[in-house]
Amino acid sequence: MRRDIAALDQLSRRQVSIPRAEQWTMRSRAENRAYRIMVAQPEGDPPPSGYPVIYLLDGNSVFGTMVEALRLQSRRPDKTGVSPAVIVGIGYETEASYSPDRFYDYTPLPNTELTHRSDGARLPEQGGAAAFFQFIEAELKPQIAGEFRIDPSRQTIFGHSLGGLFVLYALFTKPGAFRHYIAGSPSIHWNKEYLLEQERIFAARVQEKPVSVRLLLGFGEQEKSHVSRNAESARELAERLSSLTELGVCAVYKEFEDEGHVSVLPILISRALRFALHPEQQ
């Protein structure tokens, strides 16, 4: 009898899925690289202008976390400061949390000093950020806009670690691509000199043509002791960009108490939702 009950219990179980979410595979036209695209949309009808949209790097690791955080907080925008949005996770064809392909997609140039991991294994190929950005702009965004009611003036990109480096690269090279840029623990040290040069070009460009962009740089407090000094570099970056406030650049540096490089992600996601999706951020 007990065995029969256990067998019935197993038959009644099924895999848990995320409500109103779907995924598919896209291949980039230029390099034929495969990406797992994950999309979650809110319930109900979109506003007349369409939903805001967040493009989320490393979708395999953080898509579920962001979707659930948004689902809970967007129920009462008047109380939480978070309005409903479409979430687009960009991941890879793997069940692992991270793919080595991110080293190529998220880095503007190969790092000639960091060539091996701490265990001696050689790091994956790097330097494909331009091609990845082209895929997002020319292929992914048009498909999302064609299938979902989104507001093109309220687009956000979120990336962490190497993904945060890519977010800064995107801001400096094409600031009009997104309205909000969320760079969590960005690996500035990976391409630091290149990034500084792109920042100078960006600053000169907005002197001639003002923009309307908001940047959130988020770090865990425990990251300040890391040899890369990325937290210090990010804080200094926010201070430099503050001189461009009158030209449409809003830069915020936020440090989260008692958090490290990975543990900072859930709390950063929650803060990022309010930063990008506050009903007053039209």
* Helix percent band: 25-40%
The outline comes out as: globular
Please give the domain count. Answer: 1
Gap between N and C termini? 61 Å
* Proportion of residues in extended strands: 15-25%
Number-wise, the strands total 8
* Largest sheet, strands/sense/barrel: 8 strands, mixed
Instruction: Label the CATH architecture.
Output: 3-Layer(aba) Sandwich
- Going by CATH, the homologous superfamily would be Alpha/Beta hydrolase fold, catalytic domain
Write the H/E string, N to C.
HEEEHHEHHEHEHEHEH
Low-confidence stretches: none
CATH class division: Alpha Beta
**According to CATH, what is the topology?**
Rossmann fold
Gyration radius over CA: 20 Å
Mean pLDDT: 93
Number of helices: 9
**Strand line-up across the major sheet:** 1-2-4-3-5-6-7-8
Which structural class best describes the helix and strand composition?
alpha/beta
Question: What are the key terms here?
Answer:
single chain; 282 residues; alpha/beta; Rossmann fold; 8-stranded mixed β-sheet
